[in-house]
Design goal:
- The chain has helices spanning about 10-15, 20-40, 60-80, 100-110, 165-175, 185-210, 230-235, 245-260, 265-270, 280-290, 295, 315-320, 325-340, 340-350, 360-380, and strands at about 5, 45-55, 85-90, 95, 115-125, 135-145, 210-220, 300-310, 385-395.
- It has about 400 residues and is an alpha/beta fold.
- The strands form two sheets. Strands 5-3-2-6-7-9-8 form a seven-stranded mixed sheet, sandwiched between helices. It has a two-stranded parallel sheet with strand order 1-4.
- α3 packs across α4 and α14 crosses α15 (about 360-380).
Length: about 400
Amino acid sequence: MASSTYTMATGYGERFKRASNYTRSLCPKIQQCTRQVLTNLPPATKTFRFCDFGAADGYCTAILVQSIAECVSTAREQRFEALRELDVVLEDQKQNDFRPALNYIERMLEEKKTDTDVFVSSVGRSYFEQCLPSGSVSLSSSLQAAHYFDVRTPLKGFPTGFTLPLIRRLGEAKGNRELLQPGDTAWTDALKEKAAREWEAFLVHRAAELQVGGQLVVATIVDIPYGSEDYTRFSTGRVECNMYDTWWHIATALHELAIAGDIDGTEEDNCVLPTYRRTLDEVKAPFLDSTSPVRKAGLQLLQAEHVLSKHPEFFSSESLAHLSEAEMRSKALEYSRQIEGFIAPMVRVGLSKASHRNEDEVDVLVRKAMDRAAALMAEKKWVNTSEVLFLLVAEKV
């Protein structure tokens, strides 16, 4: 049987870290929040605890750790003589292999010398639950992770469970509006209800973990209503797309494998990443109701807005604007190969859950899925040059 351990050691950090531009672009915000939290803490504070939810391979977390360590060192010089420790906690799925993350951050800390003692640990627990002791966290972040559904909980009104047809319908509703039919309202209403319930749970648990004066920073993909002012502002041409749309091509490739009989329906379900792009109004909703569990937990909204994250490490819009159709297809194929190091491990984990598959069989199927997805992206001339995210900052009061 193939291993279902979720490891990023096979290329995520080395091949996809060029897309960490969005993390670097958020470092000033992380530092601003760190400084604000430090002003809220008593001068005798000895340890600053930072937790990154959905840490994956740890590369993006390491970028944040550098920024936070700089703030801690500066604070010690100015006010916090006892502050000598930075406690970093990486949260992700319990089947995640945290070794690449821990090793990478350790190497980074050796290269970037700091006079702050940095301790790194991991917790394999769902962020839909409380992951750390109450009142123990100074700063929390979740970057490009809070858009996932909890597959363990069902949709209201659909007792058969959270299945692939439902995810496919979600993709049509949120990614291709013209495919949404009037009869789909029950599905989409159930999805919205589930998304609202889980977003509320995520926020309530982060509030429980935060110290009073601690802050939460969340940035991930967002759904901008068609025709809105921000939709017009961020829609810049034919070469733009969202990573969510990239996943749609992966799902299509897997569905074709299932139709061909290469994989069965359960394996296809196991490979699908169930995500939901919230609108900014959906993001803010729990904070605007004074009776909501989020407000009662003491979490107060400081900022919620759209931000544009560009990916010049892949391609720039300007460099693609005047290419021919054939050249665009070539660029799309190149793009698909660049992101494969990020996507292939996830597909491999899904296929590895089948007890009858050995490692060689899984490798062949992953290769088929990646090749077909690459062909689909080339056919559609699909290149991700930038991405619109929502940025949320909240404080425990």
